[in-house]
Amino acid sequence: MSNEIPYNKVFTCKVIKLQAPNGEYIPFEYLDRIEYEGGFYAVLRQIDAQGTGAVEDGIVILRVDEDPDDPNAETYSGIESEDTLRAVLDLFSDRYKKGLVKINGK
Predict the structure, then answer these.
(1) Do the domain assignments include residue 9?
(2) What are the tens digits of pLDDT across the range 17-65?
(3) Could you report how far apart the first and last alpha carbons of the chain are, in Å?
(4) Which domain holds residue 89?
(5) What one-character DSSP code corresponds to residue 106?
(6) Distance CA 4, CA 33 (A)
(7) How much is the pTM?
(8) Using CA atoms, how far apart are residues 17 and 20, in angstroms rounded to an integer?
(9) Which of 85, 104, 81, 101 has its CA nearest to residue 93?
């Protein structure tokens, strides 16, 4: 994918909206993009869940796939492998500890 972020580069957060199965769009803060075993994973945090502007405490990790209909778009899907999920979380944690991921400007 052309949107690859090198491991040692700081990633600046952006907000994306994902469509839930009920059709509702839910905003997420895109915290980081992790490459692991040839795939890419998005590390997200839900924001404004109740319309208050609040940020949720937990994070969501989804696999990033190319959209077959639009080469400039991405699709996201869940991760079934617990080992992959843990490995991506560990990589994200390392990047955060090294200051390569900024959350709320910190």
Answers:
(1) no
(2) 888 889 988 888 889 999 999 999 999 988 865 656 566 678 899 999 9
(3) 28
(4) 14-97
(5) -
(6) 8
(7) 0.75
(8) 9
(9) 101
